[in-house]
Amino acid sequence: xxxxxxxxxxxxxxxxxxxxxxxxxxxxxxxxxxxxxxxxxxxxxxxxxxxxxxxxxxxxxxxxxxxxxxxxxxxxxxxxxxxxxxxxxxxxxxxxxxxxxxxxxxxxxxxxxxxxxxxxxxxxxxxxxxxxxxxxxxxxxxxxxxxxxxxxxxxxxxxxxxxxxxxxxxxxxxxxxxxxxxxxxxxxxxxxxxxxxxxxxxxxxxxxxxxxxxxxxxxxxxxxxxxxxxxxxxxxxxxxxxxxxxxxxxxxxxxxxxxxxxxxxxxxxxxxxxxxxxxxxxxxxxxxxxxxxxxxxxxxxxxxxxxxxxxxxxxxxxxxxxxxxx
Length: 326
Fold this sequence. Notes:
The protein is mainly alpha-helical. The chain has 13 helices and no strands. The longest helix is centred in the N-terminal third of the chain and has 35 residues, at 48-82.
């Protein structure tokens, strides 16, 4: 695929994100025409449709967009760190650590404000263990780090299964639904959008060094990059991003894995372009998936994490096949 100019690529991704948000706002058990949605976004008239959009659909759509953007950003950072297209917080066990900590907090009866710090602590612990076990004096490429992360992910999965088996029957359905990915209670998007904005700003600040690190930490160090410091910054930032997404929406896979590949196929190679494009594509992808989750069998809702997996597997296989042919 021919490379596009950065401003055109950003405009294309932004247009797709805005279209996904518009589709989400217009879709539901009460269908609202697009032109009506645009009218109600800028002028409140006190109607039922106005309350549906302002109090239900808009907060949830923005939350879905923020979570999708956060996961896409974390995945893009992990793929640079590992120099491996399979880099993803879920593959490395970061989300498993966050999920285990949150489930433990739920079993202990902790209130909602504790879940965010617990998720971050679990994600950071998982990252520290993976980094401590995989570190070496040469460029730890990615194989050792990736294998260590896969083993950690398997360990967290076993711990999650144990927590679910010990949970009270009344709590089990809610814990399972949250674990599969759930945005039904995500009606306060401001903190998530703040995390996304700050995370993207930090990632763009690191982008010049990430461009060098894409050729290997050894090569980057020759050009003046401190590999240890850069790894620590990436670990901390990825842990924070993953924890915010997991605490709000549970375990939602494939968004962080697929969207950086989509951005590269569109022509984004410079991290200063790839990172924001990945955020916009990830936000659009999860917004559409959440729209499908709440409308396919309405008034019942599907776990959005199940839909992202069902859609993500064939999309990722298609991307791999297409990338091999290019």
